[in-house]
């Protein structure tokens, strides 16, 4: 699909424009300064576990798009730091589930709150119409993310 193609003939949504807007925002958002200096991969794993619950290493490696040996090393470090723990999988005693600890959850919450603090002064600079447009788009963006997550399963 080229940048001038539409997602649907009944809408004026330009997928190229949407992609550029998301990428530009993400470029800024993921690089916001943080109280704790953790890698993007570490933060992504913690966020995935916080939002999706415990996962097997193989499932987490697929979700995070990193090799299983690389993820195993990362999980070992996170476990050593008290951010995740391995628990037996009740469905298969031979396998383990990676679970977020309370310390890991607090890091994710602190990161979320810190990012919000950085966004507040920027949002204050938007016009009321721009703020309303973002608020109106939130349900659709949330649904778009859900559809993307479901499609990866």
Automatic annotation (TrEMBL):
> Which portions of this protein are annotated as coiled-coil regions?
none
Q: Name one Pfam family in it.
A: MarR
Sequence ranges assigned to domain HTH marR-type in this UniProt record: 1-143
User: Mind listing the GO molecular function terms for this protein?
Assistant: DNA-binding transcription factor activity
The record's annotation in Gene3D superfamilies points to: Winged helix-like DNA-binding domain superfamily/Winged helix DNA-binding domain (1.10.10.10)
Q: Which SUPFAM superfamilies match?
A: Winged helix' DNA-binding domain (SSF46785)
SMART domains per the record?
HTH_MARR
PANTHER family noted in UniProt: CONSERVED PROTEIN, HTH-TYPE TRANSCRIPTIONAL REGULATOR RV0880
Full protein name? MarR family transcriptional regulator
């Amino acid at each position: 699909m080229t940048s001038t193609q539409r997602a649907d003939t009944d809408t004026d949504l330009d997928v190229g424009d949407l992609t550029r807007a998301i990428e530009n925002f993400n470029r800024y958002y993921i690089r916001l300064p943080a109280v704790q200096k953790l890698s993007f991969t570490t933060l992504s794993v913690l966020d995935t576990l916080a939002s999706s619950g415990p996962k097997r290493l193989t499932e987490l490696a697929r979700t995070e798009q990193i090799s299983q040996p690389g993820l195993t090393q990362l999980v070992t470090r996170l476990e050593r730091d008290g951010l995740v723990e391995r628990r037996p999988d009740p469905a298969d005693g031979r396998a383990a589930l990676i679970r977020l600890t309370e310390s890991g959850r607090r890091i994710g919450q602190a990161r979320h709150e810190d990012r919000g603090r950085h966004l507040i002064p920027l949002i204050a600079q938007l016009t009321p119409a721009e703020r309303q447009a973002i608020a109106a788009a939130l349900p659709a963006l949330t649904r778009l993310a859900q559809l993307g997550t479901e499609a990866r399963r």
